[in-house]
């Protein structure tokens, strides 16, 4: 293996490293999506309402956002490897404890802790990718995103399968076993130069490290662009079931196919991006994807104003979702390349802002509700146009 890869011959190859990093990041979508089929069963166990149990998702997201803020800095200060081990160990233990929850309150508390400690493992992954791929970080991010997208696709099905043969508690025991296996692989396989190189550790304080991220030249507009991109994506996740099943009247089976097609668009975009980004660079790919996104979103709004069938919505939604995938990866890569010692802190900033702003998608869509798909498509258009405006401002400087 060449030295330019960032790995020595004695260390792990990319063929093992990239799937492993993707599998580590996947603990988040697995923890979010796998228990969804069990909400009714969990509510019955705790003599509660499904709507109350659903709030545990918000609890998880809050814990994850806080965890990223804390552990992103600690990874820069003490190294990534200890944080991965801590995160996977804690996630495995807490996941097991959740399966023995005695009441709804302990369930909520443990879900918060599960997300909080799990963030320690996932927040370091972009830093590892940057270390390995260097100037081709966007390529590595595309590979990881491509593999990781399998998790939200299969998570509900795995949860349903577990419920078919056992009780909901085994969903969390499965997560415990999964993270324990990841921990085993990390201990014996994840050994990169930065794990021992103290020269790449930050000397800044907690607030100092975050100050570096927010004051770094040429970063703010790309962070803002990434946040807007995520808002568009969360808008889709929030509204997709309503739009297709209520507005267009498709059944659950067809909706599952439609959802898979859009995820497939994201995966295809990441494959294309991984091939082209080394030739054209992350910035050019970002600009090109934004133009395609604006065109697609304009078409999406048009067909819904005209009340055309769902097939026309899909014609424009699929390239829009594909563009969002490229935009997100490109923004992350550009930001990470700006930092040498504060990659964990930068990742924490990106993640926290994205999850925080993404959580606003639901309330905003509820405020704009008209019973049609126009607010959803209009919100998608506004966000990608916003990215276009930010990039134009950047190019004019």
UniProtKB/TrEMBL annotation:
InterPro entries: Efflux_drug-R_Bcr/CmlA (IPR004812), MFS (IPR011701), MFS_dom (IPR020846), MFS_trans_sf (IPR036259). One of its GO terms (biological process) is xenobiotic detoxification by transmembrane export across the plasma membrane. GO terms for cellular component: plasma membrane. The keyword NADP does not apply. It is a multi-pass membrane protein. One of its GO terms (molecular function) is sodium:proton antiporter activity. SUPFAM superfamilies: MFS general substrate transporter. Residues 15-397 form the Major facilitator superfamily (MFS) profile domain. The keyword Transmembrane applies. The chain crosses the membrane at residues 12-32, 52-75, 82-102, 108-129, 141-164, 170-188, 221-248, 254-273, 285-306, 312-336, 348-369, 375-393. Keywords: Cell inner membrane, Cell membrane, Membrane, Transmembrane, Transmembrane helix, Transport. Pfam families: MFS_1. It comes from the Bacteria. It is found in: Cell inner membrane; Cell membrane. Belongs to the major facilitator superfamily. Bcr/CmlA family. This is Bcr/CflA family efflux transporter.
């Amino acid at each position: 293996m060449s030295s330019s890869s960032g790995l020595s011959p004695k260390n792990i190859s990319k063929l093992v490293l990239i799937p492993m990093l993707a599998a580590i990041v996947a603990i988040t979508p697995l923890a979010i999506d796998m228990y969804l089929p069990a909400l009714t069963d969990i509510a019955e166990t705790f003599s509660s309402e499904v709507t109350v149990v659903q709030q545990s998702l918000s609890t998880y997201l809050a814990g994850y956002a806080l965890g990223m803020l804390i552990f992103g800095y600690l990874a820069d200060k003490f190294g990534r490897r200890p944080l991965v081990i801590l995160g996977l160990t804690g996630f495995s233990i807490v996941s097991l404890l959740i399966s023995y929850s005695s009441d709804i309150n302990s369930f909520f508390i443990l879900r918060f802790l599960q997300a909080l400690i799990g963030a320690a493992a996932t927040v370091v992954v972009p830093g590892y990718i940057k270390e390995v791929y260097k100037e081709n970080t966007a390529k590595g991010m595309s590979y990881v995103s491509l593999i990781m997208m399998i998790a939200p696709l299969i998570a509900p099905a795995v949860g349903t399968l577990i419920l078919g043969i056992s009780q909901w508690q085994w969903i969390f025991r499965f997560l415990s076993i999964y993270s324990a296996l990841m921990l085993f692989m990390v201990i014996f396989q994840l050994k990169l130069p930065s794990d021992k190189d103290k020269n790449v550790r930050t000397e800044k304080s907690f607030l100092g490290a975050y100050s570096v991220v927010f004051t770094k030249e040429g970063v703010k507009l790309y962070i803002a662009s990434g946040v807007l991109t995520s808002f568009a994506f969360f808008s889709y996740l929030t509204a997709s079931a309503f739009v297709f099943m209520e507005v267009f009247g498709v059944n659950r089976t067809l909706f599952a196919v439609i959802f898979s097609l859009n995820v497939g668009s994201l995966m295809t975009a990441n494959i294309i991006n991984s091939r082209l980004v080394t030739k054209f660079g992350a910035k050019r790919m970002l600009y090109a994807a934004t133009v395609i996104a604006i065109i697609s979103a304009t078409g999406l709004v048009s067909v819904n104003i005209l009340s055309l069938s769902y097939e026309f919505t899909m014609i424009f939604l699929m390239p829009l979702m594909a563009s969002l995938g490229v935009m997100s990866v490109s923004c992350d890569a550009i930001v990470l390349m700006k930092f040498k010692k504060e990659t964990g802190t930068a990742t924490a900033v990106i993640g926290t802002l994205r999850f925080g702003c993404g959580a606003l998608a639901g309330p905003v869509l509820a405020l704009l509700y008209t019973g049609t798909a126009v607010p959803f498509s209009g919100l998608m258009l506004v966000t990608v146009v916003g990215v276009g405006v930010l990039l134009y401002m950047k190019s004019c400087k």
